[in-house]
Amino acid sequence: MVSLDAVISARTPVEYFRSLANAACELSILTIRFLQPVAIKIWQEDSLTQIGIGILGGGYMGKAHAVAMSAVGAIFDTTLRPRLEMVCASSPDSAERYRAAYGFARATSDWKALVDDPGVEAIVIATPQETHRMISEAAFAQGKAVFCEKPMGASLEDSAAMVAAAENAGVVNMVGFNYIRTPASQFARHLVAAGEIGEITWFRGEHTEDFLADPKAPATWRTSGMANGTMGDLAPHMVNGALALMGPIISVAGSYETVHKTRPGGEVSNDDHAQMMCRFENGAMGQMYFSRIATGRKMGFAYEISGTRGAIRFDQEDQNAIWLYRMEGPEAERGFTRILTGPAHPDYAPFCQGPGHGTGYQDQIIIEARDFLHAIETGQPHWPCFRDGHEVNRVIAAMRASADAGTWTDIKDF
């Protein structure tokens, strides 16, 4: 039955018909007639739906994306089914370790080898920002879809060049802003867009954590270079969230500060926390605060939105709940209502059928993977694409310029 096995496992039309011919030598014509439609179906399901994924970086986010690509087909029943083809890391040993741990077919320490490999059809970039531009440009030159972790590139110039490369190539591109994809925040976007809380008048957002709150914490790569500071690392998430919930920002007034200027092991060359006031295109006022030294805050991606007929509150540390206020009913009975997410909310049911049971951080990455695969399948852009990521970088650049100049700054100048 060796020939029969070869028919069923054929990966291309040439292999299929060659193996079918070989099988005819040892099987009856009746058997072949029975086998042919079965084999064609198996071959079509395997070859037409698989897509080879290459991930650059195997650390924190590299692992998250590898897990997401392994799970997304089962969770969302995607037409495209990822095949973990190759992982790239900084050394051969670490690359092989990630390959074995995550289930990749192959490993390399050369990013060019991964990008050039014909078995890699789509690429996830989870490497330091200074590598984003050269990797994405090389991938686009070969017509390969790219998903890049935020923030895009190490500078505004980098992200502008990445947008140009993506759009000139006409290839699918996405940037990784995962926090806004929770079912609760997707529901908040729906409420705002549908006018459920009236005309929006005010927005307050923050992204606050405390991983460097201790002044005795040693200097690391996170404390070197502005791209790795709070404005480069944490601020993009909330700026993206504000843009998603509220629409374009037209002007900002910002400030930033390095609170702990020295740490064990070296000087600190970037910001510990930053803040800005802003004006949205819809006329609403806003303010945002970002910090890596916010003692006690572990995942403070939080926002409040005020409208003329209601308000919304959300905090990622309680990511499976959203607080909604509606200006209706007797005054004595009004107040914020805590709504627990469930199957009635966006992208919840594929993970769990029970209301209030909750989704988690990894699920946000799986939702991203679904969106990336859908964009590749349809050939249509999916939010947030590289241009959306560049818009975030424009706001950050304007905030930094505003702080340096001590004045309000228009986004259109960047």
Describe the secondary-structure layout.
Layout: H1 2-8, H2 13-24, H3 29-49, E1 50-56, H4 60-76, E2 81-88, H5 92-102, E3 106-108, H6 111-116, E4 122-125, H7 132-141, E5 145-149, H8 156-169, E6 173-176, H9 183-193, E7 200-208, H10 230-233, H11 235-246, E8 249-257, E9 262-263, E10 266-267, E11 273-280, E12 285-291, E13 300-307, E14 310-315, E15 321-326, E16 337-340, H12 361-378, H13 386-405, E17 409-410
Parallel strand pairs: 1-2, 1-4, 2-3, 4-5, 5-6, 7-12
Antiparallel strand pairs: 7-13, 8-11, 8-17, 9-10, 11-12, 13-14, 14-15, 15-16
Helix pairs in contact: 1-2, 2-3, 4-12, 7-8, 8-13, 11-13
Structural notes for this entry:
It is a single chain. The chain is of the alpha/beta class and about 425 residues long. The protein is built from 13 helices and 17 strands. It has helices at about 1-10, 15-25, 30-50, 60-75, 90-100, 110-115, 130-140, 155-170, 185-195, 230-235, 235-245, 360-380, 385-405; strands at about 50-55, 80-90, 105-110, 120-125, 145-150, 175, 200-210, 250-255, 260-265, 265, 275-280, 285-290, 300-305, 310-315, 320-325, 335-340, 410. Strands 16-15-14-13-7-12-11-8-17 form a 9-stranded mixed sheet. Helix 1 (about 1-10) runs antiparallel to helix 2 (about 15-25) and helix 11 crosses helix 13.
